[in-house]
Amino acid sequence: MKKLLTASLLVAMGAMAMAEEITPPAADKRAPQTAAANVKVTAQVVADNLVISDLNGRPIVLDFGKISNQKTSGVSNARIDFKVEKVGQEGSELEGITVTLAGLDGENKVQLLNTNVAAADKQIPASIALNAAEGTFVGKEYVGFIQGTIDARDSKNKAASTYENVLVLNATTK
C-alpha cells in the first residue's frame, strides 16, 4: 500500500511539473495585437430599365479577401452572384439576355493595381470569368455569377496593400 501511495504521489507531482512547463506565459507578457478595416459607404441612384446589382441590390464587389503574401502554392478564389432586374416596361417582352465583362485581356485576366502608388509591387493578375454569356429572364430577373482566382505564385512576396481594378458588366436584352 505504501508503494502504491508513493507511486501515486510521484505521478501527481510529475503531472503538476509538466503542466507548469507548458503553461503559456501570462497575458501581460504578450504584445497586444490590433487590426483595422476600411468601411466604404456608398449609394447609387440609376434611371435605367435594367438594374444590375448583387443579389441584395448592392454594388457588385468580387472580393478575394485577405491573401497572405507568404502563401507559396494553390489559388485564392472569389465568387459573387449578381442579378439583372427589369424595372421598366420598355423591353419587358424580351426574355433573353447576353452578359459580358469589359476590361479583361484576351486570356480573361485583369491586372489588379496596387492602391499604394509609392509601392514597388504595382500589380497582381487575376483570372475572371462569368458563369454564362447568355441566359433567360425568370420573371423580371436574370441571375448569374462572376468568379475569379489569383495564383499564389502571383501574390507571393508582394507588398502588403490593397490591389484593385474595375471591370464593367454589360447586359443586353434580346
Descriptive report:
- The structure is a single chain.
- The chain has two helices and nine strands, in the order H-E-E-E-E-E-E-E-H-E-E.
- It is α+β, with helices and mostly antiparallel strands and 174 residues long.
- The strands form two sheets. It has a six-stranded antiparallel sheet. Strands 6-3-9 form a three-stranded antiparallel sheet, with no helix packed on it.
- Strand 4 and strand 5 form a beta hairpin.
- The longest helix is centred in the first third of the chain and has 21 residues, at 2-22.
Rg calculated over all Cα atoms: 27 Å
**Fraction in helix:** 10-25%
Shape: elongated
How do the helices and strands follow one another from N- to C-terminus? HEEEEEEEHEE
Strand numbers in spatial order across the main sheet: 1-2-7-5-4-8
Mean pLDDT: 83
Strand content: 25-35%
Number of helices: 2
The assigned structural class equals alpha+beta
Largest sheet: 6 strands, antiparallel
Weakly predicted, low-confidence segments: none
Number of strands: 9
Amino-to-carboxy terminus distance: 93 Å
Outline of this structure?
With 174 residues, the protein is α+β, with helices and mostly antiparallel strands.
Keywords:
2 helices, 174 residues, six-stranded antiparallel sheet, elongated, 9 strands, alpha+beta
Please describe the topology of this protein.
Layout lengths: L1 H21 L27 E5 L20 E12 L9 E7 L6 E6 L8 E8 L3 E3 L4 E11 H4 L7 E2 L3 E6 L1
Antiparallel strand pairs: 1-2, 2-7, 3-6, 3-9, 4-5, 4-8, 5-7
